[in-house]
Amino acid sequence: MKTTKVPAINGAYLFEPTPYADERGFFCRTFDADVVRSVGLDPDSFIQDSVSRSARGVLRGLHLRSGAGEAKLVRCSYGRIFDVVVDLRTDSPTYLGRAYFELSGETQVTLYIPAGCAHGFQALTETADTSYRIDRPHDPAEDVTIAFDDPELAIPWPLPVTLLSQRDREAPSLAEILKRREN
Fold first, then answer.
1. Pick from 128, 124, 105: which is nearest to 26 by CA?
2. Exposed end of the chain (fewer CB within 10 Å): N or C?
3. Rounded to an integer, what is the distance from CA 176 to the centroid of its chain?
4. Average pLDDT of the segment spanning 52-59
5. Which member of 13, 63, 112, 119 is catalytic?
6. How far apart are CA 47 and CA 39, in angstroms?
7. Are 46 and 73 in contact, with CB atoms under 8 Å apart?
8. Distance between CA atoms of 89 and 83, rounded to whole angstroms?
9. pTM greater than 0.85 (yes/no)
10. Using CA atoms, how far apart are residues 164 and 10, in angstroms rounded to an integer?
11. Cα separation of 10 and 8, whole Å?
12. What is the DSSP string of 136-166?
């Protein structure tokens, strides 16, 4: 498994597995504690696995957690997604940096997103399953959502948005979120 630092987001990594393909399809390891440990992360800190299924054009995000934040490993296990990370850690050398990825079930690449970064994605295929490995139990009181179409972020979503949750539709701008943090 190959690891690559994400230059635009300090502390973020891509974990690229080595698939073994034959006439049956493929097999690959999507999580390896030793590889995760080799980049300074604690593999035992991940305590919850979740999966979402989205249809083409569905957009989820931009989400993050207040308080201590939430680190996560994200992988598209089926289909393809356009994945976005925004660094909102004020002490980070990549503060307000943005990174975009296409994750797919074909490659099974996993993205590590450090706590304090906002995350969102858009499904590019008719069905896209996205798997998450998260380092904290979910507490809805800590949920923070930023408008996906905030002009300050200018995220180049590749498709027209077909569906958003009510929470995502009503999300405040990045400026509003940053102002709340100051108070």
1. 105
2. C
3. 22
4. 98
5. 63
6. 19
7. yes
8. 19
9. yes
10. 29
11. 7
12. S---GGGEEE--TT-TTT----SS---B--H
